[in-house]
Specification:
By secondary structure, the protein is an alpha+beta fold. The protein has five helices and seven strands; from the N terminus they run βααββαβαβαββ. Helix 1 runs antiparallel to helix 2.
Length: about 190
């Protein structure tokens, strides 16, 4: 049976190695195509383990983590994440940043994504935050790397109350699969008022 378990603090730290491996494996897929390392991801995840107001939601099957969803107050994110929202008139101090939701393919379509969003929104309310924001990488519709069966999630996010804000963007650089050099990737935001 699939278990959804929110964890924080020391509980996050205990899971870092397996979470890092999962992030590397799933972020290799479309649309991120991230060619990362478990060492880098372990360092990145320490930010969550060191933040008392961070949340990691685990999807666990038979004792194995098969999915992860993260959240942290936007004020704890790098300026590259805060500045575009601040410039668009949003106060980062009122926002939760809903990071990734990653799930192994065979567990998708079972309602886990709904639980991930529910847990993060509950967490935002517990912290007294009024908005939840996340961003996604922008990819061309005709990108030849795009899988034929890929389904965009915009309709799902809209049904959950998230407003697409394509004019609010940030840029992050990462090494992509099949490219020896890091690539700049534009990201656009979705925002929900609670």
């Amino acid at each position: 049976m699939l278990e959804i378990r929110p964890v924080a603090g020391a509980d996050i730290a205990r899971h870092i190695p397996e979470l890092a491996r999962l992030r590397v494996a799933i972020f290799r897929e479309w649309p991120y195509l991230y060619d990362g390392s478990a060492d880098y991801e372990s360092d990145y995840l320490k930010v969550y383990a060191g933040s008392p107001d961070a949340l990691v939601v685990l999807a666990i099957d038979a004792g194995k983590v098969v999915g992860i969803s993260t959240a942290v107050p936007l004020s704890r994110e790098p300026e590259a994440m805060q500045t575009p929202l601040r410039d668009a008139g949003h106060d980062p101090a009122t926002m939760l940043y809903a990071g990734e939701s990653l799930l192994h393919r065979e567990y998708r379509g079972r309602g886990v994504g709904i639980r991930f969003f529910d847990e993060r929104e509950k967490h935002a309310r517990r912290l007294g935050l009024r908005h939840v924001a996340f961003c996604r990488v922008i990819r061309r519709a005709d990108d030849p790397r795009r899988p034929k069966d890929h389904v965009e999630l915009d309709d799902y996010w809209h049904r959950r109350g998230y407003r697409h804000r394509p004019e609010i963007r940030t840029t992050f650089t990462w090494k992509e699969v099949g490219n020896p050099h890091p690539v700049k990737n534009d990201m656009e935001f979705f925002i929900k008022s609670l």
